[in-house]
Design goal:
This protein has 229 residues and is an alpha+beta fold. It has two helices and eight strands. The chain has helices at residues 2-28, 203-210, and strands at residues 72-74, 99-102, 110-117, 135-143, 149-150, 160-161, 181-191, 215-225.
Amino acid sequence: MHRRARRSALRTMLAVTTTLSLAGAISGCGDDGRALRAPPPGATAPPLASSTTAAVGFNPPGGSQEPASTVALTSAAFADGAAIPERYSCTGENISPPLSWTGVPPETVELALTVTDLDSDGDSGGDSGGDSGGFVHWAVAGLSPALVALEEDAAPEGSVQGRNDSSEFGWFGPCPPDGATHRYEFRLHALSAPSGLAPGVSGGAVIATLATVPGVSAILTGTYASTGA
């Protein structure tokens, strides 16, 4: 009987000791800085992390094409913003300059090239009707997306050359009035849908149509000054 009583007393003491130890441990947790506490008045939760993906692609149908940073248009004959050699002007050999490009998107199904005089209204003998935003010197559509360059005085077989504002098909070189300096915009159009342009179309109509076809474009600008007094 005495042994049983001592065992029972020992078990009771162990249980009490364990309970007191657990209670102390729990009460001590409130001071180590890890307990959840209510935020102070006016505090807001920190923002959730987010990721941003830049949208890169073609313009929607019906929207005008904008230059794209991934496409670059250059010429071996002149630098961007520099003077166009007389060889390519209306008083020179009147041939198109060499052009090359990089960065055409894989979605491209057709390429086109247009050249306009930014300082002319485009009403000198042509029928652009003001759609071009300038005198049209060249408008070529139906170029293969596999092309990466055009040599001077060249337009690939099968391409569609519009009628420029001198009422001729093909290239018409820079030809500003005597003593004037004009700016000329060379624009490469990388289209994600066929232009549907057919031979016989005016240059102004080519440019107006290209503005409605989804795609991206690149611009090269040159200047030309007439030698007249």
